[in-house]
Design goal:
342 residues; alpha+beta; 2 domains; two-stranded antiparallel sheet; 21% strand; elongated
Length: 342
């Protein structure tokens, strides 16, 4: 989905004028997330006063346009890139096709279903986020503001000043507006705040699921069938949170290449090792040139095409290899670690 296409709903909404706001229908929901229940979400629909309704429509349009950027004097456009499990790009909106994830698609559908089942009751203190539905020409877009309600506490209370007198506010205070954390149209989510998106959909569970699936495939490959491979230990160390996102990001295409090309890469490593100079000064320069690769010799027996993972080892070099992060510069011919979005 291209939100810069002139026929796209988001593009059309972002270009509406003040006098066209009456053409949009706005529905405002307060949402509670309940992870352990059959219904993941509960929602309350609140009616907005006419001036609040008008202001919120105008605010969303302004917030959308604030997300746009201008390139060399051309028309302002949304800068969009695919969602990445490892890196949050501050200079662009992350696009996620949730139709490719059955678990995330199910959660999105449960969220929308909660708007049609508003008979549940929960306290204002249990509200997790606000969801605004805009309907334009019978098409729907949903905008999330990940915030609950303002709460009085034992250490801080809200008061209203009237005629030089302060009184406690007992009513619920809702903070509306601000930055849009994410929005979705059909099966595409567009994310400006990754943390809010991941919290709303418990996405870390999905990251761990992807990690575990990729790990299972990797340790079942032939190069892990040696006793020295310690596949159970490798798997255990990889499941610490610091490595989860890198492993979750590995694509099926990369896994397939790992399966078919592992021995060829081992042969190339053998050539690099064999060509190491004997002269100590030249050896230092040579190893520096291949420093990104050199650590792999501690983890791979290139002669037998097997992984060797010792008890005190960290999986980092192997993860870099398995996730195709080691690349060769076209300009310098040196090897380096690529950032996750290169």
């Amino acid at each position: 989905m291209n939100i810069n296409d002139r026929s796209n709903l988001i593009y059309r909404i972002s270009n509406l004028k003040e006098e066209q706001l009456k053409e949009i229908d706005l529905t405002f929901y307060l949402v509670r997330k309940q992870k352990e229940a059959d219904d993941l979400y509960q929602s309350i629909e609140d009616t907005l006063a006419e001036d609040v309704n008008h202001w919120l429509k105008a605010h969303i349009i302004k917030a959308l346009n604030d997300m746009k950027q201008n390139d060399l004097g051309k028309e302002d456009t949304f800068h969009v890139g695919d969602y990445n499990h490892e890196i949050e790009r501050k200079d662009q909106i992350a696009r996620y096709n949730i139709g490719l994830s059955s678990s995330l698609l199910s959660k999105k559908n449960k969220l929308i279903k909660s708007f049609n089942n508003l008979d549940g009751e929960f306290s204002d203190r249990q509200i997790n986020f606000q969801l605004v539905k805009l309907t334009y020409n019978k098409e729907n877009a949903y905008f999330c503001f990940y915030r609950g309600v303002k709460k009085n506490t034992s250490k801080k209370k809200f008061a209203l000043r009237n005629s030089n007198q302060l009184r406690f506010i007992e009513e619920t205070i809702i903070d509306i507006g601000g930055n849009i954390d994410f929005f979705f149209v059909e099966d595409f989510i567009f994310i400006s705040n990754v943390t809010s998106f991941e919290n709303a959909f418990d996405y870390r569970d999905h990251i761990n699921e992807l990690r575990d699936n990729n790990l299972s495939q990797i340790i079942s490959m032939p190069f892990f069938d040696d006793e020295r491979s310690n596949k159970e230990l490798f798997e255990k160390k990889c499941k610490t949170f610091i490595f989860s996102r890198s492993l979750a990001q590995i694509s099926p295409k990369t896994l397939s290449a790992l399966q078919t090309e592992f021995e060829s890469r081992c042969d190339e490593l053998s050539v690099i090792k064999r060509n190491e100079p004997r002269d100590e000064k030249e050896k230092i320069i040579y190893r520096e040139k291949f420093s990104t690769l050199w650590g792999l010799f501690e983890y791979i027996d290139v002669a037998s095409y097997k992984v060797v993972f010792n008890d005190d080892a960290l999986p980092t070099p192997l993860i870099h290899f398995f996730s195709d992060k080691i690349v060769k510069s076209f300009l310098t011919k040196d090897f380096k670690l690529a950032t996750s979005y290169e």
